[in-house]
Amino acid sequence: MAPFSIEGASSKTGAVQYATAGAMTLRVCEGEFGIPRREWRLLAILGEGGALQPSDLAIRAELDRSRTSRALAGLQAKGLVARQVVAHDRRLAHVALTAQGRQLHARMLPRVAAINGALLALLTDEEVAVLDDQLAALQQQATQLLGASVWPKADRRRGGRQAA
User: Fold this and answer.
1) What are the beta bridge partners of residue 93?
2) Coil, strand, or helix at residue 78?
3) What is the pLDDT along the chain (164 residues), one digit of tens a residue?
4) Which is deepest, 92, 119, 157, 159, by most CB within 10 Å?
């Protein structure tokens, strides 16, 4: 089986991960470590990939920028992430794990990987690869449909409803 990756885990397990196995992940993240699952996702991506701009982190985590910003603020308050302004362009910043963040990532990753491994254990490596390809195709189709959407967006600042 391929090495565990937090980003690969979401594509492989998709809705099943969030509906059923997500409860187990939630218990590990929040119950054992006091980290909400959204913060864990950012912590894991930074742990695997190193420093990123918050906007790039949002894309990789498949979160909107405001949710990413709130989760990053929580991680910063806990001393797990540090924001570093780019010297040549002070409008830009990178976020990276602190030493404490790297230690927590190293403790949490095996627990979350074990849940993902147990979920996928019933499938062969070939079946996991096929499932991954199918879910990637569905994600690509959903992204294309969203991009071509003619449906109006809700104005969430005004209660999320369109005028009748």
Assistant:
1) 85
2) coil
3) 556 666 555 555 555 555 667 788 888 889 899 999 899 999 999 999 899 999 999 999 988 899 999 999 999 999 999 999 878 877 889 999 999 999 999 999 999 889 888 888 999 999 989 988 988 898 888 888 888 877 777 776 666 555 54
4) 119
Q: Is the pTM of this model over 0.70?
A: yes
* Domains, the chain, ordered by start: 6-141 (1.10.10.10)
The predicted structure's pLDDT at residue 41: 92
The Cβ of residue 12 has, within 10 Å, a number of other Cβ atoms equal to 21
Residue type for position 58:
A
| CA–CA distances in Å: residue 56 to residues 59, 85, 161 | 5, 15, 30
93 token code pair = 């910043």
Give burial (CB, 10 Å; 0-12/13-18/19+) of 63.
middle
What is the rounded distance in angstroms from the CA atom of residue 7 to the CA atom of residue 58? 12
Q: Which residues pair with 81 in a beta bridge?
A: 97
The angle formed by the CA atoms of residues 143, 145 and 146, to the nearest 5 degrees, is 65
Which of 65, 125, 147, 163 shows the shortest CA–CA distance to 133?
125
